[in-house]
Design goal:
The chain has one domain. The chain has twelve helices and no strands. The chain is globular and about 65 Å long.
Amino acid sequence: MSQAIEETASPSTAVAQSRAALTRSLIGGLVTSVPVLVVGLLILNFAPTYYTYLALGAFVNLIVVVGLQVFMGNSNIANLGHSAFVGLGAYGVAILSTPLAMKKLSIPHAPFGFATLQLDPVSSALIALIMVGIVAAVSGKVISRLSGVAATIVSLALLIIVHSVFLNWTNLFKGNQAFFGIPKVVGLPWMMVFSVVVIVLARLFKDSRWGLQLRASAQSPQAAAALGIDARRLRLMSWVLSALICGLAGVLYAYFAGTISPKLFYFQ
């Protein structure tokens, strides 16, 4: 019996248990993704073009919902600001990747030299997501210190602020006018791949030590604090991850639609 206890407490056993848990989470995420792949493959092979376009929009919504779950589902805090990160991701790639000839028509007076800058779609997406991550980290410093209705109101305020920037910084975002000319480089196969990656990532976070501790702190903040769980750090972590996933949804939407406008990233 003493040998069994020693084996249970040994570092090698703990590592093995951790790997087993990781494998279970990975398999669970992949199993959850199976219906997404089945539907996507059916549409890709049998549906007409119009339904393919509808499926692309549905997959974007799926990614946004999964992004919301990462924060809301684990922290039990309602988030109304997710559309801001979707919009930041979409406008980020629009500003960086739109061909120069189209920029002369859409944003000829863009500041910081953006009117004469054109990057490839991959670099544009990475920079846009970095920008989303920075905004999420800054806003998350506030969100993570709040809970309940107060945090929800702040997330709503973030959405209103970002939307106001989209509307009023016309030299960069074109205001109410549509931003057109974005390269259409994402089709249904890539959308399916990213959907699976996001679902698996959300499952891994949910089943991780951080996800478990975050859910525990949401259920009983006092007990979690007594056990030394840093709820603020965990909320910030899930907020940034959630924002990056929503930002990715915006990037993918811009790359398949080719045209965006501020009204797409507001309450509607």
